[in-house]
Amino acid sequence: MFTLLNVAQPDTLEAAYNILKEKRSNAVLGGCAYLRLGSQTIHTGVDLSKLGLRYSKDYGSYIEIGAMTSLRDVETNAALNNYADGLLPKAVANIIGVQFRNVVTVGASVFMRYGFSDFLTALLALDTEVELIKGGRMTLAAFLDTPRSKDILTKIIINKTKGHAAYQALRNSASDYPLLTVAASQLDGEWKIAVGARPIRARLAVQAAAQLRDGDNDRTAEVMEQAVQTAVGELSFGDNRRASAAYRQAVAQTLIKRAIAEVVACK
Amino acid sequence: MKYVGQALPKTDAIAISTGKPVYTEDLAPANALVIKILRSPHAFARIKSIDTTKARNSKGVECILTHKDVPKVRFTLAGQSYPEPSPYDRLILDPIVRYVGDEVAIIAATSEQAANAAMKLIKVSYEVFEPVLDFEQAIDHASVIHPEDDLFCNFDTGLAKERNICSSHTLAVGDVEQELKNCDIVVEETYYTQAQAPAMMETFRAFTYLDHTDRLVVVTSTQVPFHIKRQVARALELPATSVRVIKPRIGGGFGGKQTGSGEVFAGLVTLKTGKPAMFIYSRTETFSCTTSRHAMRLKVRLGADKDGFIRALDIENLSDTGAYGEHGSTTFSVCGDKTLPLYNKTRAVRYHGHAVYTNKTPAGALRGYGATQGTFALESTVNKLAIRLNMDPAELRLKNIIKEGETALAYHGNVLGSSTLERCIQKGRELIGWQDKYPCQELPSGKIRAVGMAVTMQGSGIAGIDTSSAAIRLNEDGHYVLLIGSTDMGTGSDTMLAQVAAEVLDTPPEKIIVHAADTDVSPYDPGSYASSTAYVTGMAVLQAAEDLKNQIIAQGAKVLAVAPEQIEFDGQELTAFNGSKAISLKTLAESLVVGTDKCQLVGNATYGSPISPPPFIAGFAEVEVDPETGKFELIDYVAVVDCGTILNANLVKIQVEGGIAQGIGLAMYEEVRYDERGRLQTNNFMQYKIPCRKDVGRITVAFEESYEPTGPFGAKSIGEAVINTPSPAIAHAVYNAVGVSITCLPITPEKVFMGMKPQARPE
Amino acid sequence: MQITVIINHRQVTLDVQPNDFLVDTLRQQGLYSVRRGCDTSCCGLCTIWLNGKPTLSCATLSFRAHGKHITTIEGLRHEAEGFAHFMAAEGAEQCGYCSPGFILTVLAMKRELVNPTEADIIHYLTGNMCRCTGYQGQLRAIKKYLGVTAV
Questions:
Q1: Of the residues A141, A159, A177, which one is the last residue of a structural domain?
Q2: Which of A232, B127, B438, B720 has a CA positioned 20 to 30 A from the CA of residue A93?
């Protein structure tokens, strides 16, 4: 159980960031569902509740989701259900339960880069950007490659590039962490294949995506199969309590193949 | 029958479902001291020194106890009839700690924060020993887990502590080696079952206080109040009369609460401080530090002739009882007792092996109690035999199962008094669609559907040992009070027993107040375990009600000045001579209790059965396997049950559905993992996955009632058998789908996928 | 920290520590229907409504409830008992320990979903664990309940 000594509820983003920087043990309070599992001591928790970050707005060419939006909000959001075959709602729908998803926030799910995150996998397959107070605005992929540092994620931006997407995940018990997650999309001709819970966090299979794009006119089973093999070749898979690397790799081939096929079938 | 069999709602239904504060934690005094336990980080160690000075002086601390401060009488935490067949291998606090989580110090403080803060100030220095973490290496391991001189067992159950053997057992009839040689087919296989956790929703907790006569009162979430009373008295060196144990509403047990947890700690704190005290174990503590199912390795050798008769059966068991031996020898023997008799065309049978100590979370009682593990092993082997014989597995069962009126080699000379297992198998086949679906069909999607089956038996109470008493009193207003000691842990047994009494007394159950599970008030009952409440307590209630009825009739006869044989009693009125003489029960009761007749009536009975008639279940599973991932869905599960007469139609159905869900967990989801230092990794609901709603799918339950002459209104039992069939039935279905035989539970997608032959696996 | 919350339609001002979770704060207020079942936000027993949404009280820091409506089953007694009778008719409340959190989630579902299918119901309630019943009796009760109260 973590220890929280003080709480600050700043009125501005700048104030929030300053408090966060003040002490090494200061931290942002997200949903707290995962925070409470740890045993860290937080001197001052920065609560973002007063910053108006719980929202989801459809601006036509993009959707903006504030960091304090819950995953349940994502699941039920009309604009997100209507975009990219409802990829994001589908991705989060199987996480534990409704009352859990009402607690977990978008900001924490992205910022903490959890390996098991269905949400992160799906986001990576879309044209997603993030905005941070210090780091500014960048693509999600770039953010994930940036080393961790003290910062506050304020919103994610989903550019509504036209296209289709599909989500696949394997769990043993339906309420368990996934053994593997896959999201595939073809947006404006560009393919994206994201694979997560490897057990490490989601990553794009860039070479595989390029192969699909180049072979797009053929779109034969052969091209798809080649892309699948490339994808598992360029990504790494590891052992953890839930599955072995060998199994993950085998399952990845199946899930990637299925996700690609689902996207292709949408057109 | 008017009341028995009806789907009456539970008497406490509305109260407990809408959150009335009737559970242990809700009833605790507001000023109860908070107890926390300092636990060993090592799997096997000796406490070299322990310094509590700083902790004792810490704010809010009232009491800190180490092994130096507590009574040193060895006892067992097992809830069993005295003399218990479990070794007395526990001390309240022991200088030797035997698993990660074993208790090192008891801290009592005015708040949880104060107790936790004080715990951090306790300095312990350990001499760490090499732990025994692999139960297959336990026997004659260099580390002796229980070297103490004062360890003893009430019976000779084969305890050999220097060898880490908790118990040894052999049951043999005939020459099994010779018979196996004579068989046309011999199937051999080794199976592993895991240490399933009960995972009841309410964790362990109890509070204690001294009452107005200085007696120690223990209010606890337990299945065994009388056993807890005896345990607490022994451990704290108190006369039995000084202890009272009360069980309020509790949130599930499943056998986990058939073993004591922290009642002795709380009692000791109350004795030392004079103040009420309470402990509440967290979920993590409940997983790591209370008992789980015995993990077992079962080597089965089954011999049959080419006509399909099973002629020889040899089962060798190695059972992991963990750091302490609660229920070690009894789960071991039940494993053989409740499997071998199923197939009675055998000419020789043998069941043998050991239960061994390891430095892991102690094992104890859990629904099925050894029969579950044995059923997985035996039924999986019988299913393999069916393949070797090229015979339908259901036909193979029908050919070999014991039938009503028959006996079996390992059946202790008993004759089976009731069974409809044959009809259960036929009905189950029909309900699952066996004819069309066995063994499997490939779907257009590429997925494969298949079916599998298993049968099981259990017992009803412990023959010759479980003894239950009941009392039923006629109140001054013509209502009744039923006093029982059995423990409704959600099963609805309080309601069911009222139905039994109501049937005898021909009165609506609402007129019977049920009072249960207070050792000062209740007649003795072992508690609800071993599937004993309906069969043993139920019969005691029936006989007590009959006793009372006879007394009512005798009193009525006196008042009406007729012979008792001339009285007719319809539950409301006593009449004679076709109604020309009559008195209402209400009037009679008033007169007896507060009026001139001066005789408050109480019906009494004590019952124990020399036999343990088995309930039977035939279980059928339909799965849909995705050969590209090994993941499979449970499409349908059918269970057809013979529990004798159904006492409450709803409650018995829910027992089956709930038990099957737990069996599905054992079969598919509930993995147990330890790390290399002996720490239980699967010690919370995030890591240990009990089935959620989506995992269970559809369960179809049907009944084929038999009539058990020795049971109340023909009833047997339902509590445990229900968990036994899913593991072997599901394993069988998976095999029929993709040819992968899983012999080590749980059956996970990875095991299925990796087990598929490379050429069969779509790459 | 001082917070003002509306618990079951009654406004109260409470003193809480930064570290306090709602499950403990509510129990301290005598709302014993709210209970802990696990340490890892997995079981759903502690479910309450926060501004009408089913939420885990074990994972909600108490100060976050400031200015919000909290509903426990004590605040929905009449409606909860209405559904509880359907459960009782199936024998589907066994030990009852998961029931308050479960019933609150059912009543939230009733408000949130229109004409749910069986799959919708199962999906909505996935976060409510039960070890006793195998979930079948609960589903029977819900289907009958929604069938009767559906307009």
A1: A159
A2: A232
Residues of C in contact with B654 (CB under 8 A): 90-92, 94, 132-134, 136-137
- Residue B104: phi and psi, rounded to 5, are -120, -40
Identify the domain containing residue A20 by its residue range.
3-49
Structure tokens at B115: 């107790």
Give dist(CA A223, CA A205) in Å, integer.
15
**What distance in Å separates residue A3's CA from the closest CA in chain C?**
6
Residue A173 sits in the same domain as residue A249: yes
Q: Residue B285's pLDDT is what?
A: 98
Do residue C132 and residue C68 come from a single domain? no
Q: Which helix (H) or strand (E) holds B225?
A: helix B225-235
| DSSP sequence for B481-500 | EEEE----SSS-HHHHHHHH
Owning domain of residue C99: 77-146
Residues A168 and A262 in one domain: yes
Question: For chain A, what is the domain count?
Answer: 3
Whether C97 and C133 map to the same domain: the answer is: yes
**Percentage of chain C surpassing pLDDT 70?**
97
**What are A198's two structure tokens?**
């490897």
Model ipTM value = 0.97
Please answer yes or no on whether B25 and C32 come within 8 Å at the CB atom. yes
Identify which of B687, B692, B763 has the shortest CB distance to residue A174: B692
Give residues with Cβ within 8 angstroms of A115, minimum separation 6. Answer: A196, A197, A198, A199, A200, A201
Q: Which amino acid is at A260?
A: I
C interface mutation test: which of A29, A72, A77, A98 has the most C CBs within 10 A? A98
Which of C56, C74, C92 terminates a domain? The answer is C74
Distances (CA, A) of B659 to A30, B336, B665, B701, B742: 39, 21, 10, 11, 22
**Mean pLDDT over residues C41-49, rounded?**
97
CB nearest C96 (choices: B16, B203, B684): B16
Q: Number of folded domains in chain C?
A: 2
Q: B443: number of CA atoms within 13 Å, CB side?
A: 13
Model confidence pLDDT, tens digit, residues C77-122:
999 999 999 999 999 999 999 999 999 999 999 999 999 999 999 9
- Residues of chain A with pLDDT > 70, as a percent, come to 98
C151 is a domain residue: no
Average confidence (pLDDT) per 10 residues, chain B, 763 residues? 97 96 97 98 98 97 97 96 97 98 98 96 98 98 97 95 97 98 98 98 98 98 98 96 98 98 98 98 98 98 97 98 98 97 98 98 98 98 98 98 97 96 98 98 97 98 97 97 98 98 98 98 98 98 98 96 94 89 96 93 98 98 98 98 98 98 98 97 97 96 98 98 98 98 98 83 52
- Among the candidates C23, C43, C74, a domain finishes at C74
Touching B (3+ Cβ pairs <8 A), the chains are A, C
Interface of A with C (CB under 8 A): 2-7, 29, 31-33, 36-37, 45, 47, 49, 72, 93, 96-100, 102-103, 174-175
**C68 and C81 share a domain?**
no
In a domain, C8, yes or no: yes
Q: In whole numbers, what is the pLDDT of chain A averaged over residues? A: 94
Give yes or no: residues C55 and C83 share one domain: no
- Domain match, C10 and C40 both: yes
- Determine the distance from the C-alpha atom of residue C151 to the mean position of all C-alpha atoms in its chain, rounded to a whole number: 24
Residue A216: per-residue pLDDT: 65
Do A253 and B763 count as a contact with CB atoms less than 8 A apart?
yes
| pTM (predicted TM-score) | 0.97
A244 → chain B, closest CA residue: B750
